[in-house]
Amino acid sequence: MARVSQAHLDARRRQILDAAALCFARNGFHATSMQDVLKEADLSAGAVYRYFSGKEELIAAIVSEVLGEVRAAFDEAARQSPPPPPDLLVASVLGRTLATRESLTVDGVPAFPRLVVQAWSEIPRNAQLAAVLREGYDSVRAAWGRIVEGYQKSGRMRADIAPDHVARTMIAAVTGFIAQQALFGPAPVDILRDGLRALMSVPAEPPAGSQLG
Amino acid sequence: MARVSQAHLDARRRQILDAAALCFARNGFHATSMQDVLKEADLSAGAVYRYFSGKEELIAAIVSEVLGEVRAAFDEAARQSPPPPPDLLVASVLGRTLATRESLTVDGVPAFPRLVVQAWSEIPRNAQLAAVLREGYDSVRAAWGRIVEGYQKSGRMRADIAPDHVARTMIAAVTGFIAQQALFGPAPVDILRDGLRALMSVPAEPPAGSQLG
DNA sequence: CAACTTAAAACGAACGTTCCTTCTTGACAA
DNA sequence: TTGTCAAGAAGGAACGTTCGTTTTAAGTTG
Q1: How many domains does chain B contain in total?
Q2: Would A18 be classed as within a structural domain?
Q3: Which range has the worst mean pLDDT, A43-52, A65-74, A161-170, B129-138?
Q4: Where is the HTH tetR-type domain (chains A, B) (predicted)?
């Protein structure tokens, strides 16, 4: 096989990445051997090492892809106009996240949430990945903070709390729910949306310093 | 050294566990070699293998400890009487979680949140740990569900949403914030408490089927 | 035929673990 | 109180295995 088409090269690369993602979702990055990946991809070592310089590059490629998908989901949700209320915003980013690579399953459950958790676990080890994640996180935080500011300026949300704190809280809700999916299997997005909606109906303590009756 | 006191044996065991926890928080379970642990514990292989049958047992011991601490934090928060409102409930469990093993730091930041994420990443690989986690999660979910029911019955929260959904949402918020700490370093608990408090001030969509003005 | 992909065997390094030795300790006899 | 001894904890080199990777040869296509 010589001078194959670019499409073929791309397909091979994707085939390897998909096989690796499956193995990684099953066993984690470092408990997965290259030979596991080779077997899953039904390819030989020579073939795989033509596309990736080694295991670390394979891990980095998948982590980047996963983090990129998550960030894209957050960004897309933030671009909705007009900005939906918090419960819908959170639900839409979660739905979009869980829709990525839906066909890639391990034991019948989606592999993607597990890959997200695996990616998190890899961050402390890799400064470059950490920088990418940090950049994406900061950007999402800022975008969501602006949306929260909108809530507050339009009077839909009390204004005595830093928008950034609310943004971080909403992000925590989404990522926490992704973790739940990774650990306990899939669940409808409605759970988080409704749960948030219920919380939104609870009367909170008044702002500190406010006049008491 | 022969027939040393039980206290000494316990101290050695803890010394090994602490060293391993530090290494694991730094590099993850499987990228940490036994020799890394030996060096960190300042002990020889013979010593460590007298207390643990192997690396897997070391990992299992630490994961169990970490999950146990997290579960204890959730349980303690749920035992508060009378049950605090959601923002305070969430803040108290988070505070309690982050207070565990506070002195165990890597690069100056607490190791515990990282260990939590590492534990999550290990779950798909180990059915026994998964069962332990599942049991703890279900129990916390049920306990928090009962609290939410209390909110609803006392009229502090709209009652048209399943208590379990709210419980899962609050758990997601806490775990998501733990993940943030693991990835981006420590942050005050107040962020999550205030963020939740702000969300609680947002008027939500009325229940489906409710009469429209 | 030329160019290049794939297969497969094999390599060195690093891993987890074991094994044997050395050293320490507490118990006990004198 | 002191000296001796057995028990067993710790040390550390060495083992076999497995890993990621490289190399070499065969195969395939334009």
Answers
A1: 1
A2: no
A3: A43-52
A4: 10-70
